[in-house]
Amino acid sequence: MKLLELHLLQSFPVTCLNRDDVGSPKSAFFGGVPRARVSSQCWKRAIRMLAQQLSQERNLPRFRGIRTKEIAAKLHEILTHRLQDSQKAEQWATVLADRIGRAAAEGEARTRVLLYFSPGQLEAVVDRVFEKVDLDKLEGSQPAPAGRRAKKDDPQAALENAIKEALRALKTPPEDAADIAIFGRMVASDPELTLEGAGLFSHALSTHEVANDIDFFSAVDDLQPQEEAGAGHIGTLEFNTACYYRYVGLNWDLLSDSDHLGTLSATERKQVLDVFLRAAILAVPQARKNSMFGHTPPGVILGLVREGQPLSLANAFEVPVRSSNGYLARSRQRLEEHYALLRQVFGLNPIRELWLLLDTDNITPKVGTRVETLDQFITQLLEGLPNE
After folding, report:
1. Average pLDDT value for the chain
2. Is beta strand 66-68 parallel, antiparallel or unpaired with respect to 2-15?
């Protein structure tokens, strides 16, 4: 397995990056002490959204995946253009959405579950239906009610079979669904639509012990008479500060197979990875961004291209970091020491081994090569991947 891996250390000030069901920052016990935590799902969404933005800025329409229950609305756009009849398009969009994801209720356009498709995939479904179904015969029949299958002798049976064929073809993401190839797709109601993602993401975990703190806040009523004391509103919010370790990996072999982005050339796949890597490094979860803005870039990034099994370096912090002079510098030392040990014991022989560090001390790592800019870091990592 050829892997591209990022090991990141990122220190945040007062934030609540990822909340639990009661609004508190998420946490976990590791090494016998409480740690701050950000779920992989939370950070993946931030990465996915930034990747879409970056690809649009580069006029590279590869990251266009849409995760929604409102798939009928997108189908309606496509069918309206094809049929030139908005009412008929709405009717068939509801039917197609039901066949793809099963309607939440009979006749309802919304599906029961979130579906993850790209515009190109939905257009492929419509194309396959129009290719396989005799529309003249369908004109005299009514669509089967949502949630019910057509009878064998009903013209709707041809429609249902065509949709099934189209959905099987959706296993392979088209050129506008690189995000689906990387993040994967799980549809419990139809395992044939499930696609294993080529990306690997850890939960972000603080390198040190963390206890959540409480912010007591008040808001003043602007029109309250000056002689009246007191606030118009009071409340509390939990927050924490932490230096996080997180892992982002990518299985190049899986990404390059026929079920993922095998239809793209190696050069095109590397263009996709350039966008993905920038998003993975720079994206920050958006929770409370307006009241606890703490968007900071990673202070330490170790990038690897190598053969073998994915390896997390989280155990570098199984014993929590303790420091009276900040956590980032000591966490970097722990990360480097643990990686050097794994490298020696397990015979790791990386093709690329790069460090990107935010520091003013001109530290030279004992293993690997330090680069000075993000552009150099990404370019040299991608040069370690095959060109075919």
Report:
1. 87
2. unpaired
